[in-house]
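Lab notebook: predicted structure, single chain.

Context: the supervisor wants predicted structures on file for every construct in the current expression panel, including those that have not yet been purified. This is the next one on the list. No modifications to the sequence; it matches the entry in the shared construct table.
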Amino acid sequence: MYEFIKKLQSIGLTKNESRVYLFLIEYKEAKTGFICSKLNIPSSHIYGLLDKLMNKGIINYKIVNNVKVFRPVDPESLYSLFREKERKIETEKKELKFFISNLKKIEVKETKLNDFKYFEGINGVRSMFTEFINSWEKNSTVYVASAPIAYDKWNAFLLDLWHPVRKNKNIKQQLIVPSRLKKHGRERVKFKPIEVRYSDMENESEFAVAGDYTYLLSYGDNPYALLIKDKNFAKTQTRVFELMWGQASLK
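Prediction complete. Output recorded below exactly as produced.
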């Protein structure tokens, strides 16, 4: 019964509405007094619950000796509640999209505090990646010096999030992969345009540069990252990457 109640709640019924509805399913029909006594629901509340169930279209009533006898309609009617929930979700999605669009139009007053952002935890790092990727300009280049753990725990996520955007924006990538993980390098060569080189140097952290943006990312049980928007810092990190690139091997 608990599972039935949870499922009914998931499509918009309250706990007590679910109890009354399931009671009517079990008994086929009942008067209000019988429902109240069996479910221990105050008589002052029962009519409100029944009205809501009728408004949802999943129960109705008949008159017997001038007394209302309530009964459920075909359970197939629950689909209409689910469709209504879907419509509500679609409406909320459109409203959220409109809200986000308006948020992006707000003029940001640039300060140094806005140039450095700290992200923590798996969801935080995912947000960092999303912001970094959204910063990419079409036909530009992104430089990545990756860490081994990125391929152990984040491989599928990065493949799904990263490379489709690169393809759509025609972003070139230069990627340094740890030598012992060449299979992942070969996997990424498929996602052109990309150049891959291999380094014997292994770190638990990684960095990447795109335009004026740089991220520094430390993986682990509780990953964290810095996203920095600073032209001079990005130039410096690009030079560091170029030194590493020159020392890395093609095979």
